[in-house]
Amino acid sequence: MKKILFIFNPRSGKAQIRNKLMDILDIFAKAGYELLVHVTQRTGDAMEAAAAYGESVDLVVCSGGDGTLNETISGLMKFDNIPNLGYIPAGSTNDFASSLKISKSMVKAAEAAVFGEPFPIDIGCFCGDRHFVYIAAFGAFTEVSYLTPQDKKNVLGHQAYMLEGMKSLASIQSYEMRIECGECPEGVGKKEEMILEGEFIFGMITNTMSVGGFKGLVTQDVALDDGEFEVLLIRTPKTPLDLTNIINYMFLKEEPNEYVHKFRTRSLKILSKEPIDWVLDGEFGGTRREVNIINLKKRIRIMRKTPKKQ
Description:
This protein is of the alpha+beta class. 27% of the residues lie in helices and 39% in strands. The protein has helices spanning 12-15, 21-30, 45-53, 66-76, 95-99, 106-115, 142-147, 150-156, 158-167, 240-252; strands at 2-8, 33-39, 59-64, 84-89, 117-126, 130-132, 135-139, 175-184, 192-206, 210-211, 214-215, 229-235, 260-265, 267-280, 283-304. Strands 5, 6, 7, 8, 9, 12, 13, 14 and 15 form a 9-stranded antiparallel β-sheet that branches.
């Protein structure tokens, strides 16, 4: 009999899985799977469960927010032969589920996990020992995601991020950095290396169509399986007007701004004079002066609804 490992976070998204758990388990059983269920209890639990049991099953399914998805994939990345992965989103934002067009209905997402088709996606390798699914970021506002309490996320959703973000407006910090971009596909038919130096207040390396619920922050043209990251870097503004212009460019798509860099790349090396806090998929990713990021093309296969034939 086929085996399935089901990992779920009982607290994500107002604990909504409690009302759907029996339906989900019933779908798995009727699909012919022997069930192994793990209920996460703490940070890192999903990663440990995936690493401990993932190699012995035919399919792994996780349910929770972006952090649960990150942990599960990080655990599976230890294997040479990685099983297919199903994802039942249950968090406050679920950026990556939206990019994959996975249903917000937990029942429909569970059906896609066992009856859908595998879709290969790129995974980010962070400093050789960590991984991220859709975003690695530093600087202004990034601490909001991991400092906002789970209870507040559950009650307020997106409003929680906005409220916490407003508190950090007055304390935006800049970082002196050197950013080396390897194989940036700028230009036609060739890949150029690029080096940026100076002070920056924010940066994100992404493989997603939306961040924090906002679509198209880097580009509208995003492929999750092309082996390339979409990168956004913001230099330190010199005046309040500069900051306003940056925000207008980001969200209102006004004329290009000299403080904002957008490009694609397969790898990045970032050096800073002082330690910088990083966020990986909405969770604290550590404090580092040197960061190496590499795109692992099509490393994980995520189950999603079978596309309708034209």
